[in-house]
Specification:
Distance between the termini: 33 Å
CATH topology of the largest domain: MetI-like fold
Oligomer: single chain
Structural class: mainly alpha
Radius of gyration: 27 Å
Helix content: over 70%
Number of strands: 2
Strand order of the largest sheet: 1-2
CATH class of the largest domain: Mainly Alpha
CATH architecture of the largest domain: Orthogonal Bundle
Strand content: under 5%
Length: about 350
């Protein structure tokens, strides 16, 4: 049957039995590949160290005798206090930074979608130059407040004089590309300056340092994804509301955000997962008080080698909240995964 006849036909296209069989075989195979790591974690969490080292054993009661020693040690034993503290830090830091990132990024994305910005390139370069000069002054021993004040005054003077002669300006696309380009740098390239900054502010090993860092790191992702999603919302809806007297904030809060729930949910889950699993920044910015679960998992690599049974328990309890949230928000995520794929 020709392709045009399929589109003209009133009856839907039905695959052949062989095609359906092959499709189901492929899906079942891929499901096994995806779910096997979870099965391995669960089985390993029930093994004694001797069973892990002499295995592989995968079938409880047949190949090995299940034991809850790893669960008891992690949840109620010597490591229980560290586990509870790390779990609390992970939940607080993850959800707080994800919510803050979503609030700031959504507002910025809406502004890039509905307003036109024309910052002058010369003014931006002068601002960067003044910031560099302030940093050099602070490094040379000039007081912090005096350095910042002098740099601000210098920037104002330059903008009011030679800044007016600059004509070349940037657009919204340039701003969006600059934001997403911040994610191109590997975290290890910026972790030392971030460490020194929080050390100067006496915020090392605090939840506030992790929240601020994760919010800044993931902000570009939220802006980029929500910007594409807002572009799919017809602007005529907002124009009708404006004619009826609605303010810009009322339009954004009562019309745009409710229409963007799938995109908001999918973006929130992405940011939450990135924050939940982050290791490198947490390694530098926290030690004991603000330690998160990825660090607790890595700490199970003792002198005798990786303690897989303890790691499996920690990983299972670490991914459980994210899995539950994903299952509860599945109907929104399925629509939000297509963020920006259709331009309306």
């Amino acid at each position: 049957m020709k392709l045009e006849n399929i589109y003209k036909s009133k009856t839907p296209f039905k695959p052949s039995p062989l095609g359906m069989f092959v499709s189901y075989v492929i899906m079942i195979f891929w499901a096994v590949v995806v779910l096997f790591p979870l099965f391995w974690l669960f089985v390993t969490s029930l093994k004694l160290p001797v069973d892990v080292n002499t295995g592989p054993f995968y079938i409880p009661f047949l190949e090995f005798k299940p034991s809850g020693h790893a669960w008891e040690y992690i949840l109620f034993g010597d490591l229980s206090n560290d586990t509870i503290r790390a779990y609390k830090n992970t939940v607080v830091v993850g959800f707080t930074s994800a919510v803050l990132t979503l609030l700031l990024g959504t507002a910025a994305a809406y502004g890039l979608t509905r307003f036109q910005y024309r910052p002058k390139l010369g003014v931006i370069l002068m601002a960067i130059g003044c910031i560099v000069l302030a940093g050099i002054a602070i490094w040379a021993g000039v007081p912090l407040f005096l350095s910042i004040l002098a740099a601000a005054v210098l920037f104002i003077v330059l903008v009011q004089t030679i800044g007016r002669r600059f004509q070349r300006s940037l657009g919204n696309s340039d701003i969006a590309f600059w934001l997403i380009s911040q994610r191109m740098l590997p975290p290890v390239a910026v972790v030392l300056p971030i460490y020194v900054m929080f050390q100067t502010l006496n915020l090392l090993d605090t939840q506030a340092a992790l929240i601020i860092t994760y919010t800044a790191v993931n902000l570009a992702i939220v802006v980029w994804l929500m910007r594409d999603y807002f572009q799919t919302i017809p602007i005529e809806i907002e124009e009708c509301a404006a004619i009826d007297g609605a303010s810009r904030f009322r339009i954004f809060w009562s019309i745009v955000l409710p229409l963007s729930v799938p995109g908001l949910v999918a973006t929130f889950l992405f940011v939450l997962v990135f924050t939940w699993n982050e290791y490198l920044l947490a390694l530098f910015l926290s030690s004991a008080n603000a330690q998160t679960l990825p660090l607790t998992v890595a700490a199970q690599n003792a002198t005798r080698g990786p303690q897989w049974w303890y790691m499996s328990v920690l990983i299972l309890i670490m991914i459980l909240p994210v899995v539950i949230i994903a299952m509860l928000l599945e109907r929104y995520i399925a629509r939000g995964l297509l963020v920006g794929s259709i331009k309306g």
